[in-house]
Amino acid sequence: MVALNWQECLIFGITLAVTFIETTSQDDSCTATWHVWSEWSTCTDSCGGCGIYMRTRVCLTTSTACNCEGMGTELDYCNFDVCRYPRPACCYNRAIWSTNGRFACKLNQTTSFITDPS
């Protein structure tokens, strides 16, 4: 069973509104709850799609045998503006693309070729 619950928590004398996603097992003996996602971190780089940012959430359980479903960390690439010389314009498997008169780094689409063995 999955339910979205809201409650107020008193932490260090401050009342916070907290949203939880609760998952219970079939026998209801184990409860595992995801706390809400954190804010996205600052991007680790300024251009070229080179940077990564992340957010996390904590699994709160009633027992060490209980687990939350899903991932506790999300990662994504960020800052797709083209880098200035002397850095490479784009990182990883990215290429420069132009959209609406603006340049950006985009995943390089590769084409696979099938050769006829005959």
UniProtKB/TrEMBL annotation:
UniProt keyword annotations, A-Z: Signal
SUPFAM superfamilies to which the protein is assigned, alphabetical: TSP-1 type 1 repeat (SSF82895)
Entry protein name: TIL domain-containing protein
TM stretches of this protein: none
Keyword Lipoprotein: no
Entries under Gene3D superfamilies matching the protein: Thrombospondin type-1 (TSP1) repeat
Annotated InterPro entries: TSP1_rpt, TSP1_rpt_sf
Source organism per UniProt: Panagrellus redivivus (Microworm)
Pfam families tied to this protein: TSP_1
Keyword Ligase: no
Record's signal peptide: 1-17
